[in-house]
Amino acid sequence: MQRIAMLGSGFIGRFYAESLQGQRSKDKIVSIYSRREDSAKKFAVDYGCEHWTTSMEEAVAHPNVDVVCIALPNNLHEAAVMLCCKHKKAVITTKPLGRNAAEAKRMLEAVEKAGIFNGYLEDLVYTPKFLKAFESVSKGAIGRILWAKSRETHPGPHSDWFWDIEQAGGGCILDLGCHCIEITRSFIGKDIKPVEVMCWADTQVKPIDAEDHAIGLVKYENGSIAQFEVSWTFRGGLDLRDEVMGTEGTIWMNNFLRTGFEMFTTGKGADYVAEKAESNTGWLFPVGDEMNELGYNHMFAEMFNSLEKGKPPKETFYDGYVVNAVLDAAYKSAKTKLWEPVMLDIWRGREGVGKHSHLTDYDPDHYLIKEEVTHYGARKVILKNKTTNKITEKVLE
Amino acid sequence: MQRIAMLGSGFIGRFYAESLQGQRSKDKIVSIYSRREDSAKKFAVDYGCEHWTTSMEEAVAHPNVDVVCIALPNNLHEAAVMLCCKHKKAVITTKPLGRNAAEAKRMLEAVEKAGIFNGYLEDLVYTPKFLKAFESVSKGAIGRILWAKSRETHPGPHSDWFWDIEQAGGGCILDLGCHCIEITRSFIGKDIKPVEVMCWADTQVKPIDAEDHAIGLVKYENGSIAQFEVSWTFRGGLDLRDEVMGTEGTIWMNNFLRTGFEMFTTGKGADYVAEKAESNTGWLFPVGDEMNELGYNHMFAEMFNSLEKGKPPKETFYDGYVVNAVLDAAYKSAKTKLWEPVMLDIWRGREGVGKHSHLTDYDPDHYLIKEEVTHYGARKVILKNKTTNKITEKVLE
Amino acid sequence: MQRIAMLGSGFIGRFYAESLQGQRSKDKIVSIYSRREDSAKKFAVDYGCEHWTTSMEEAVAHPNVDVVCIALPNNLHEAAVMLCCKHKKAVITTKPLGRNAAEAKRMLEAVEKAGIFNGYLEDLVYTPKFLKAFESVSKGAIGRILWAKSRETHPGPHSDWFWDIEQAGGGCILDLGCHCIEITRSFIGKDIKPVEVMCWADTQVKPIDAEDHAIGLVKYENGSIAQFEVSWTFRGGLDLRDEVMGTEGTIWMNNFLRTGFEMFTTGKGADYVAEKAESNTGWLFPVGDEMNELGYNHMFAEMFNSLEKGKPPKETFYDGYVVNAVLDAAYKSAKTKLWEPVMLDIWRGREGVGKHSHLTDYDPDHYLIKEEVTHYGARKVILKNKTTNKITEKVLE
Amino acid sequence: MQRIAMLGSGFIGRFYAESLQGQRSKDKIVSIYSRREDSAKKFAVDYGCEHWTTSMEEAVAHPNVDVVCIALPNNLHEAAVMLCCKHKKAVITTKPLGRNAAEAKRMLEAVEKAGIFNGYLEDLVYTPKFLKAFESVSKGAIGRILWAKSRETHPGPHSDWFWDIEQAGGGCILDLGCHCIEITRSFIGKDIKPVEVMCWADTQVKPIDAEDHAIGLVKYENGSIAQFEVSWTFRGGLDLRDEVMGTEGTIWMNNFLRTGFEMFTTGKGADYVAEKAESNTGWLFPVGDEMNELGYNHMFAEMFNSLEKGKPPKETFYDGYVVNAVLDAAYKSAKTKLWEPVMLDIWRGREGVGKHSHLTDYDPDHYLIKEEVTHYGARKVILKNKTTNKITEKVLE
Q1: Quick one: which of A254, B47, B108, C106 has the most CB atoms within 10 Å?
Q2: What percent of chain A has pLDDT over 90?
């Protein structure tokens, strides 16, 4: 059993609380910190917390607290982490880890120096679909990974601080891109180094300083490529789709808008207000169990199981730091219009991984380009002569 | 926290165990009963049970046990329930409750006489999608319910006892129809009386005595109609789809084969063996978190929360009994080729509910048949004169 | 090239005209008959017809006319057909052929006696999806057919005469069921005799005398079963789905509401009025090329190609007659609540086809019930002893 | 009626022939040219051509020929076009127009100097789905266009010449990217200038000199962005998906792999060989009417209707030239790793279109960032002060 201090009583803090204390859980939020007293009190009542406070340190230091869960705006993560280091409390924090890699690196070094358990709450690599897809990919079901894409777009966040570049540290790249980067990096291999990033970003719709739409490409040392598509200007709900392509297959995941649940309502029967949906009449696509589908349940389980076994979780501050380094390169690229290198002072994966060969032998003299069954049922191969480079077709049988 | 005795260590017992002890649960299986010693021992090791036995009564009577969970073939349910009554243990049992309504009624009367908590483990009315759909339907989002359909078909069960009519008590109607009947009954309203059943059943493919394919219609007192489609001869995986039609909308749910997770594999990369899938190459449609998608997690949570609050769960032995009564009528109808009445000695819902009127007033002289927007943008109504019955069109504006 | 007289200038007549003269067609509508002069004139202008008339016989008898296309309310089919017989003109008629089998039989006998080309315009067995599915089924891709289902539901027809039982001859069973019956009959085999029908029908929503919702089952001599689901009370658009199950596979077709075209609109950009859709904001599901998707193009091509080759088309008045006979049985069953025999005075298919055996030999002593790969990768068979009927499992390898 | 000379009797020539002479068409292929005599003869027999030849000029110059249709490898387009100019024959050519913009420009200038009808056979802007989507977009149904993406990937082309960089002129960018560029350009507006391109390309799998996988971004003068994803390494069939995002909505199109036709087959019933599919067992996703779904029918109809009306078709050599210019920039960018300008010597669209403002007034003092309905039903706005730039929330009512 884990006793938790929750820092932050807003949208994400409440989401976490639903997951942490949902169903038949043995874990418990014992202390809630909020900057606003009424919000702290309300949260304490709603989730049965024995202690509430408007002092962050008080919550962290509370003797009943085993683990601190940070659910605060991005600009407050570092201060909260430092308090956990001071009081030697296990810490888990919402995404992104920092507003940039420098912040993230300081947090990473601090928790490691303090020797405390640290978890990076990247829920989207814990969704049931991701976990199953990842298992298949790991077993080689789709072969060598060539490309992985993650898309997260919606009509913009709910809370005002997201729109303020000082508090948030950035726009939709930071807010949503952090998910996409870790999802695609996981498929390609977390031990494979991201080397450079090209990013387009623009403010197309919203009257803000930060970007509201961006597309990026991340090259990895082994020749794989990752792609992210993020936006706060998408109309139609929460679009959360991932794709992976390998030499032997492909995986498509639609995590939110098309999950096998479809509903039409004229709206005359009742005022049905669907969460995150943009309309409440016509065809709607609800999600059955949002908490589970978004990975919160599996994430907290893995975090606390790891903590109890004395081992690091799948996602640590180190991963958060790598993600921030990729994000930094993306922001730089959006300005310079160049492919920008990913600056990783700390790198714990493999070094010098070469690009995979694209030559498949057919026979001693030829490479195989393609093998297919023609529409008249014959097997055909397209070959390339190793010496002459000449390309020929050959029908077998 | 609940301490559970599991009766049965087969496919469904293990599924239940995964759910009961999954994630960060506070509940625990303390005793396992199996007819075969090696199976009991293996289960005890796999799920960390402190006690195993080949005596059903020993498991039920074990002093550490609070709740007995029956995961046995259909012909053993009654004996197990009677032991729970004898030892005054809370009991929850897998579906169907009995092989027929007579058995179910005896069990219902026994648990009520014994005054013990009784839960009917109909997981498919606890799936996240069903719960959300049910909430919408309850709030009136699709209006008055006209029709509800549930389909469960697959290539046949895994264990041999299902195919033996004596142990199972029936074929796919009993095995799968029990789900469909409770799902559709829930949408129509559990207080509305099912009045008669028409059922077609046949043994089309399998060399067995029981039916391997059936389609049934169930009429309810308020004029709503329910439909079930069940089969052990479907090829393509587990087809689990529900639909509901109301006067103001419709809901479509695909619980297993199309949930937003699609994968193609040539099979050259690795031998991927997908559960319940019929192939391991080509396009595959895995389910992220089967346990959650099939309702086990939400079902056990509701059962134990109810137990702890001292109130009956959503699904009790009474519901299991009503389902068995509908199943009995279906079996009879399949033989007599007639609409057979549902024989309910015990009925706790509403009585004498009339059929809803199908007359909507348009004005004092007319009923409204239809209102639509024409392709040239005008509003058109089709009306029926109350006196003359003449049908006319009228373009408004 | 064919020169056509169109009888009827309403919704369906215009649909036919779009298809007949669409794209780069060599065929031409030369005469249009309508009961209302202004409607005939307008049609003539819109489709460039050289001749218009309010006399049905004048259109039929017109010397330039090769083929008469009947697009009239059901109660006028017979009179129109008789005129074609009188003037020896090839005739093609919209569905259903008659209001009942007696009418259909008279028309069938008349055209055959007159020796004229006769085509039954059942477009839904000419949709591109149906044609491809049918080809696969014919080649055995899904094995022996066990069950075929067709569903057509929508919020009710556009024209007033459909709602008047005298003109229409019935409700949604006649209007929509005729499609479903021919689709499923085609999959099962048009030479296999439909033997009996069970039908539930009700008027649940509309203030009309005819049924607005019905479900039916049709048994075929070879043990296959067909199912139809029809309604004028469905909310959400035009739901047109077919399914077929065979011993070796299954086919699912969604012909209208989910065809790979999805659109979300807030409605602020423009007033988009989608055809047949029930809303013009939110998620919409348009169909790319309705004319082609609904089979009109392929239907007229096959009709006229057959006519030019001097052979009967795939769908003749005989097929229309068989469909009417099944419909009659459905209407009777809805009243008697009994399985009603299909009365076919004229039957040109196979006679006395027995039910297919459901016994598959495994070895001399056993039947095979099921073969599967277990989750631990082994092959398992479930067998039934031919003498003792005992059911056992056997793990191979 | 048009009389056509077909140049090329390969895969695409035959596809065109099926469309040109399909259904009840009045058009006719009268002459077929192929480099190989046997191939020309076979084509002539299959499609009933009165004339065949191995001399390209003979086919073009044939007195019965009205229109020349070029279906040759990319390196032969220019020579064929010049013959059409010489003999003053209307010409339509397969995609891409040239191997590069220089070739394309020469062809464009030649046909215009010769004053002949010229059509660019970009079938994918003629698919029924595209046509309908384009109509909605044109009417403003999804607002101002922000982003358009087109994806075309498959396991590689059928004919050997595609794999030879000399004949083809490039790899998958040229082969598939030309489609994507014209699709996205059409959504954004063909009068809006494409200004620069960033492209990643690699040879990840095939032993060839050309790229087998590429991703590109194209910036337009008005601030809209287009994206293309192309590959010859995708496993799973032909993946043809387009998406468009506007300020008021979004459109998703799946043109091939998910069109509402789903089939499962064990493969035991029959050897079903699906076209372009990668497997013939398991779940398959056939397309009903490939010819129509891929736009061939609507394309030829529009081409010939325009020709007969004496007006240019929607897609002319000018469009082919613009596409080639964008492709050139993509190839250059893939090498230089820079955003490369699109070099358009000839530009007939609008000039100097500024970027659309992203500022929406809420009141005199504030811009509107977002308006939403909270989960408790209130309307909330997020605003930005025009002077202070401060971001605030305000709950209305």
Answers
A1: B108
A2: 80
What is the DSSP-derived secondary structure letter of residue A160?
A: G
Contact state of C279 with A282 under an 8 Å Cβ cutoff: yes
Q: Which range among A268-277, A295-304, B367-376, C122-131 shows the weakest confidence by mean pLDDT?
A: A268-277
Distance (Å, whole) CA B130 – CA B132 = 5
Strand partners, A264: A283, B250
Structure confidence at residue A8 as a pLDDT band (50, 70, 90): very high
Q: What is the ipTM of this complex?
A: 0.93
Give the chain B residue nearest A129 (alpha carbons): B288
Would an 8 Å CB–CB cutoff place C377 in contact with chain A? no
Who's near D310: CB < 8 A, 6+ residues apart? none
Question: Does residue D373 belong to the interface with chain A, where contact is any CB pair within 8 Å?
Answer: yes
pLDDT at A251: 96
Inter-residue contact D232 to D154 (CB < 8 Å): yes
| CA dist., res. B234 & res. C205, Å (int) | 34
C160 CA: distance to closest CA in chain D (Å): 29
Query: DSSP string spanning A311-352?
Result: S--SS-HHHHHHHHHHHHHHHHHHHH-B-EE---SS--S--S
What is the pLDDT at residue D357? 80
Question: Using omega within 30 degrees of 0 as the cis cutoff, is the peptide bond preceding C96 cis?
Answer: yes
What is the rounded average pLDDT for all residues in chain C? Answer: 93
pLDDT of C190 reads 97
| Contact yes or no for D124/D230 (Cβ under 8 A) | no
The region that residue C98 occupies, defined by phi over 0 for left and psi between -120 and 50 for alpha, beta otherwise, is: beta
Least trusted range by pLDDT, from B272-281, C93-102, C207-216, C219-228: B272-281
Q: Which H or E run includes D64? A: none
Nearest to C266 among A235, A264, A284 (CB): A235
Res. C91: pLDDT tops 70: yes
Q: Which residues of D touch C263 (CB under 8 A)?
A: 133, 136, 141-142, 249-252
CB nearest to D235's CB, from B264, B278, B284: B264
Q: What's B129's DSSP letter?
A: H
Q: Look up the pTM and report it.
A: 0.94
Phi-psi category of D337—alpha, beta or left, where left has phi over 0 and alpha has psi -120 to 50?
left
Of D235, D248, D369, the CB nearest to A249: D235
CB contact B229 to A (< 8 Å): no
Q: Does residue D284 sit at the B interface (CB-CB below 8 Å)?
A: yes
| Backbone φ and ψ of D282, nearest 5° | 80, -155
Would you say B174 and B327 are in contact if contact means Cβ atoms under 8 Å apart?
yes
In three-state secondary structure terms, B372 is strand
Interface test with B, best of D279, D280, D284, D375 (most B CBs within 10 A): D279
Q: Which has more confidence, D307 or A270?
A: D307
- Name the CA dihedral angle for C311, C314, C316, C319, rounded to a multiple of 10 degrees: 140
Residue D274 has pLDDT above 70, yes or no: no
Residue in A closest to B257 by C-alpha: A260
Chain B residues closer than 8 Å to C235 by CB: 142-143, 245-250
> Residue C272: its pLDDT value, please?
54
Tell me the two tokens of residue A138: 């790991």
Q: Which of A128, A250, A134 is nearest to B287 (CA)?
A: A128
Residues β-bridged to residue A31: A5, A51
pLDDT at B69 (0 to 100): 98
CB of A268 within 8 Å of a chain B CB? The answer is yes
Interchain CB distance below 8 Å, A255 and B260: yes
Residue % of chain D over a pLDDT of 90: 80
Classified as helix, coil or strand, D276 is: coil
Mutation for testing the B interface, residue in A265, A294, A370 having most B CBs under 10 Å: A265
**Distance in angstroms (rounded) separating the CA atoms of residues B55 and B66:** 17
